[in-house]
Automatic annotation (TrEMBL), chain A:
GO terms for cellular component: membrane. Belongs to the glycosyl hydrolase 20 family. The keyword Hydrolase applies. It is an enzyme of class 3 (hydrolase). The keyword GTP-binding does not apply. Keywords: Glycoprotein, Glycosidase, Hydrolase, Signal. Residues 34-149 form the Beta-hexosaminidase eukaryotic type N-terminal domain. It catalyses: Hydrolysis of terminal non-reducing N-acetyl-D-hexosamine residues in N-acetyl-beta-D-hexosaminides. It holds the Pfam family Glycohydro_20b2. Residues 1-25 form the signal peptide. It comes from Ambrosia artemisiifolia. This is Beta-hexosaminidase. Its EC number is 3.2.1.52. GO terms for molecular function: beta-N-acetylhexosaminidase activity.
UniProtKB/TrEMBL annotation, chain B:
Pfam families: Glyco_hydro_20 (PF00728). One of its GO terms (molecular function) is beta-N-acetylhexosaminidase activity. One of its GO terms (biological process) is glycosaminoglycan metabolic process. This is beta-N-acetylhexosaminidase.
Amino acid sequence: MNTHNFPTLFILFLTLSYISPLISTLESPSPINIWPKPRSFTWTSPHAIPLSPSFTISSPSHRYLTPAVNRYLRQILTTNYTPLTPPKLNLTTPPLQTLTVTVTDLTPPLTHGVNESYTLTIPSNTSIATLIAATPWAAMRGLESFSQLVWASPAQVGAGLVITDWPMFEHRGVVLDTSRNFYPVEDLLRLIGAMSANKLNAFHWHITDSQSFPLGLKSEPELAGKGSYGPGMAYSGDDVERVVEFGLEHGVRIVPEIDMPGHTGSWAEAYPEIVACANMFWWPAGAPWEDRLASEPGTGHLNPLIPKTYDVVKNVIKETTTLFPDTFYHAGADEIVPGCWKADPTIQKHLADNGTLSQVLEIFINNTNPYIVSLNRTVVYWEDVILDAGIKVNPSILSPETTIMQTWNGGPDNTKRLVSAGYRTIVSSSDYYYLDCGHGDFTGNNSAYDQPPGFDQKKGGSWCGPFKTWQLIYNYDITYGLNETEAKLVLGGEVALWSEQADPTVLDSRIWPRASAMAEALWSGNRDETGMKRSAEATDRLSEWIHRMVSRGVKAEPIQPLWCIRNPGMCNTMNPIF
Amino acid sequence: MAATPWAAMRGLESFSQLVWGHPARIAAGLIISDWPLFEHRGVLLDTSRNYFGVEDLLRLIGAMSANKLNVFHWHITDSQSFPLVLKSEPELAAKGSYGPDMLYSAEDVKRVVEFGLEHGVRIIPEIDMPGHTGSWAEAYPEIVACANMFWWPAGAPWEERLAAEPGTGHLNPLIPKTYDVVKNVVKETTTLFPDTFYHGGADEVVPGCWKADPTIQKYLANNGTLSQVLEIFINNTHPYILSLNRTAVYWEDVILDSEIKIDPSILPPETTIMQTWNRGPNNTKLLVSAGYRTIVSSSDFYYLDCGHGDFTGNNSAYDQHPDFEQKKGGSWCGPFKSWQLIYNYDITRGLTEEEAKLVLGGEVALWSEQSDSRVLDSRIWPRASALAEAMWSGNRDENGKKRSADATDRLNEWVNRMVSRGVKAEPIQPL
């Protein structure tokens, strides 16, 4: 080579040597992928076969599986979907005529821990694919996987493959707060549909809170009558039934939460007498944080020392368990704020007689927990009920057999505290799984936003900032630091969208694709076969999955410029950026 | 009564906001006298990192008009894609766009420009150069330095990057052919966009990119500097832009970058406007005290994409033991800029009265690495509304006190009305 070309070749060499390591560390990507990535996906010689225009799915008859089958059949026959990176596969014959669904046991209901394992086989040389599923709910998981192997118009499907799949964690959910801002039923259904597509199986519906009470209860009509945002912003019994049925048809459990005794300011519109510190200013000017009356604007805690409280509460619980058949009932119990109860004369008297606020909470729990349990429910509480620094109950009054804890604070530390106390635990650590973080705060008149330019913006006003990116969520190990026995008590996780600054206009983009990140981490994990974190490999698969979700009507937000998936590896960083 | 047709549009918008109810009614017994504090009130949208259909642009312009914003700064091209179809340079979009369904034809541009005029919104095109031009290499590899290279080599310090983010490529000022293409692009862009402002970009010229090019290496070996290379580029393009009866707008980097910049003397303030994005009011002051009219887009306040992590893949920073310090969450300009932060920003802070006169106004900016049509509305609204009021009538009350508290409920109402008009603005509070 002459010296004139040397620099060019040297650059070329440098370029290749920078790019080559990227290629060698990436496994050869599969032509088409399923999100979440299946536990086992064998596709030795990838190719495709056409989907027959008369393709059918044969399946046993089941009240909820049959509508699912019909739904998937319709979706598959009208796919017309082009992946961002269209698979370049040989198309062979014969076309796929039938997917035969076999369910080992049709009887299990949709409950926590139901078997969701399936095996999907699309052979190379016959016209029949088979889905063998443990339960109807497992069949739904397999149908979803099948639907993601179909693309193009006329439709074709990957062939010569075997998928064996089952989840790592049994509880994989999304919390949606429909109290701070309202979401019409259509939005809830779209959310549940998208959850099902991500193999998420628990919709934790945080229905009520201090700001509004949108649940229409026949036994307590005034609660929504006076406490909802308005007649067009309430859920009737029919609405709830629709949501529950839709959930069943999609393999998604609906777990209701009626948060109590805190977060009940909205109950005071109907029953001012049972709510302490209702309609007061949440944090007096100049007062220290410890003297606040609520964690955020909107005061009101149920008063455990007023007998009438339990008349109302029992009606609410009873009817909620009637509306929601799931065996889990979430009773809240987070963020009991001393200042609120201390503002009440009856409670002040109790305190003056050497009582404590923790005792007041205990009275409440003792008067409600057994009742919930008597209705054949497992009660879920937020961690605060036994972990709060100030107001908490003795764990001895909450039996681990009938109580599940949900953690939102302190990352894996609090998970450890809960499981080592023997409680099954759902993980929603705010440092990772709170989807609303990193959006400033919503209070008005906040002078913190008026500082000289150049001030340290820190978290930008969001208590739990910064924004939790999909990579952060994906990489979170919810059993970090737990021993094997403790880890067994971790049921799974839930990402949470608190709605102070969210409503239908942003529902899809706030949740997707970040909930997809958790969905895969909890279904098949966040590591590859060698035990290394695999978010790099997941990136293009997630961009493809976003594209498919968007084609199905879910307005998931993009994670990268389109250029990135077009130029594999080029948007990676080989140096950590933070 | 309006001074001009454009003023009439502002008045019509105000009138429309005084109507409500079913059947409709209108407030009465009132007089409004209104005029803006700042004359340049804009939104920047990047349609290169991700594509936005024409309908999205029209909806954006319509919403801008409703907020009395009057400038759509269209950052059309960048390294990732070149969606602008030019008759004189058809290969640029043919090869550099994301695809045939992700283009802006001349008809599309005409539609956008007309729509803007009907809404009192100017359309200012930006064809970023010489940096941010990786997409040009699909058609013209010979004129783009460091195209299609990995942006930041493993283990290399930040100073040795080839680009500020994935997607490399800078036009090569030492190749004559470059100017053949550039002139065609500039000429046709000015034909498509009649506004008197033409944005020439000139931000983020990265040493590592030009240094990767043999021709430029030769130049450097002969005691040339990269700043001189930039100067050659500016000297060969700026006068041409002016000759087409345009005022050139550049990003502050062209004279303020720490490494590669040109002497202000070659950019006369009469024909050049600067746009600042860095270091808040400090750089505004540097620009106006050098005599330039300035548009403010300080990233600390006005960048709407901040606070959303970063978009690179394989970033091991996201995999640390729990309770690590999350800092800005990966976003270089984090945290998220809330509406209150934007509202309260005083773009003439620290300037003398004379200097302040040179501040034309401000633009919020949505860079699209992690945005596209699904999130366009919620990323921009209502935060651009916060800028809109601060630029139109200020952020203080009659006593000179900041009034964002009072603005809160008014903004809630405005969000509600925008949503009713089909703009998916996000909520700022619980109902």
